[in-house]
Amino acid sequence: MRVRVKGWNFATLLAAGLVASALAADDAATKKDLFTVITLNGMPCGEVVSVASRAENDHVATCKDGNRYRVFLNAEGRVVVQKL
């Protein structure tokens, strides 16, 4: 019985670690994508340092230089970048 408990503990810790690393990788990819979109729209942004998701395709990105942008899809499906 003790072997099973240890096995479950290990499996639980492993799963939690994998989920945390997947979320961190997703966060890094989101920051990179938002930086690219902001830059391609001609807005100044040295680096995206934090992202707050408002909805599935609606984010607020805070840049290293202090600028904040809302990046979202409009009704026509086009990407819009608004300076906040």
Measured distance between first and last alpha carbons: 58 Å
Helix % is 40-55%
Domains counted in the coordinates: how many?
Answer: 1
**So what's the overall shape?**
globular
Q: Report the sheet-strand fraction.
A: 25-35%
Order of helices and strands: HEEEE
Tally the beta strands. Answer: 4
Q: Please state the structural category.
A: alpha+beta
Strand order of the largest sheet: 1-2-3-4
* Radius of gyration using CA atoms only: 18 Å
Mean pLDDT: 76
Please report the number of helical segments. Answer: 1
Major sheet: 4 strands, antiparallel
Query: Runs with pLDDT <50, length 5+?
Result: 1-25
Provide structural commentary.
A four-stranded antiparallel β-sheet has the order 1-2-3-4, covered by helices on one side. By secondary structure, the chain is α+β, with helices and mostly antiparallel strands. The chain is built from one helix and four strands, in the order αββββ. Strand 1 and strand 2 (58-63) form a beta hairpin. The protein is globular. The protein has one helix at 2-40; strands spanning 48-55, 58-63, 68-73, 79-83.
